[in-house]
Design a protein that fits this description.
About 45% of the residues lie in helices and about 20% in strands. The protein is α/β, with parallel strands linked by helices. It has one domain: Response regulator (Rossmann fold, 3-Layer(aba) Sandwich). The chain has a five-stranded parallel beta sheet with strand order 2-1-3-4-5, sandwiched between helices. The radius of gyration is 13 Å and the shape is globular. The relative contact order is 0.19.
């Protein structure tokens, strides 16, 4: 059975590009436009990995990661943060929250796919 990836980003083109790459790699892909919607999806579906933007309206990536890690049902889901931000302090904060990978935009679709495959194997 194919694994399911949740992409959370307020930019539709980023979601589409990531979905295309991951679908091509054999993954089921769900989308959410912000962290609040993403959290609802993660709690209601069987999600194997979350890729979230850092800065979004309503709920950002750090808030989403904290909420996922605080819930026993979702605490073991690996989380990738997708951002333009190269601030080492933010990367350290992400690591402390439990973020597994920090991916810089613009990303190379094949590299994203390789990172997801590595995290799930």
């Amino acid at each position: 059975m194919a694994k399911t990836i949740l992409i959370v980003d307020d930019v539709p083109t980023i979601r589409s590009l990531a979905k295309f790459a991951l679908s091509k790699g054999g993954f089921n892909v769900l989308e959410a436009q912000d962290g609040s919607v993403g959290l609802s999806v993660a709690k209601s579906k069987n999600i194997d990995l979350v890729i979230s933007a850092l800065n979004m309206p309503v709920m950002g990536g750090f808030e989403l990661a904290k909420a996922l890690k605080a819930d026993p049902k979702t605490q073991n889901i690996p989380i990738f943060i997708l951002t333009k931000d190269t601030n080492p302090e933010d990367a350290q904060t992400g690591k402390e929250i439990g973020v597994k990978a920090w991916i810089i935009k613009p990303f190379v679709p094949d590299k994203l796919l390789a990172a997801v495959k590595k995290a799930l194997n």
